[in-house]
């Protein structure tokens, strides 16, 4: 069973989503199905079919979240240190072409939010950064083309 690295914050977010699905959204869809059944013929009842489809999506997401939480390896970034980039590291980069500075934290795939500086550990840039340290340069092929970055700082906060 492959472990999934995740920060404590990311784990709590997944738990909260699972709790919301189980305690609120399941109940809402059950009520919607019940109400739609009262409208008669189910074969031509669009509300019934939409509610059943929504129920299937909720149950699939519940199963996915339960699997991910069961395989989660919670990594507390505050306990990490070192000079090399690894999961949980906050990395200050400079784009070697534009001189633009960018900061990313390497996080689990389910926590990634590039607009907020949270880079998935599975992203091409993160994979290129892992194991490197301040002063190293990396080249990475992204959907936007090839880019080169220099690592200015590696920290764990």
From TrEMBL:
InterPro entries: GreA/GreB_C_sf (IPR036953), TF_GreA/GreB_CS (IPR018151), Tscrpt_elong_fac_GreA (IPR006359), Tscrpt_elong_fac_GreA/B (IPR028624), Tscrpt_elong_fac_GreA/B_C (IPR001437), Tscrpt_elong_fac_GreA/B_fam (IPR023459), Tscrpt_elong_fac_GreA/B_N (IPR022691), Tscrpt_elong_fac_GreA/B_N_sf (IPR036805). GO terms for biological process: DNA-templated transcription elongation; regulation of DNA-templated transcription elongation. Keywords: DNA-binding, Elongation factor, Protein biosynthesis, Transcription, Transcription regulation. Residues 4-74 form the Transcription elongation factor GreA/GreB N-terminal domain. SUPFAM superfamilies: FKBP-like (SSF54534), GreA transcript cleavage protein, N-terminal domain (SSF46557). It comes from the Bacteria. One of its GO terms (molecular function) is DNA binding. It holds the Pfam family GreA_GreB. Belongs to the GreA/GreB family. Necessary for efficient RNA polymerase transcription elongation past template-encoded arresting sites. The arresting sites in DNA have the property of trapping a certain fraction of elongating RNA polymerases that pass through, resulting in locked ternary complexes. Cleavage of the nascent transcript by cleavage factors such as GreA or GreB allows the resumption of elongation from the new 3'terminus. GreA releases sequences of 2 to 3 nucleotides. PANTHER family: TRANSCRIPTION ELONGATION FACTOR GREA (PTHR30437). This is Transcription elongation factor GreA. It comes from Oceanibacterium hippocampi. The lineage of its organism: Bacteria, Pseudomonadati, Pseudomonadota, Alphaproteobacteria, Sneathiellales.
């Amino acid at each position: 069973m492959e472990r999934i690295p995740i920060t404590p914050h990311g784990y709590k977010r997944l738990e909260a989503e699972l709790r919301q699905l189980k305690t609120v959204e399941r109940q809402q869809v059950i009520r919607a199905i019940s109400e739609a059944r009262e409208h008669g013929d189910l074969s031509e009842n669009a509300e019934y079919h939409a509610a059943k489809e929504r129920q299937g999506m909720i149950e699939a997401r519940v199963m996915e979240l339960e699997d991910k939480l069961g395989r989660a390896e919670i990594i507390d970034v505050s306990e990490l240190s070192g000079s090399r980039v690894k999961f949980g590291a906050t990395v200050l980069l400079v784009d070697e072409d534009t001189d633009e500075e960018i900061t990313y934290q390497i996080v689990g795939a389910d926590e990634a939010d590039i607009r907020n500086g949270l880079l998935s550990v599975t992203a091409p840039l993160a994979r290129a950064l892992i194991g490197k340290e301040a002063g190293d340069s990396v080249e990475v092929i992204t959907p936007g083309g090839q880019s080169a970055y220099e690592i200015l700082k590696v920290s764990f906060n």
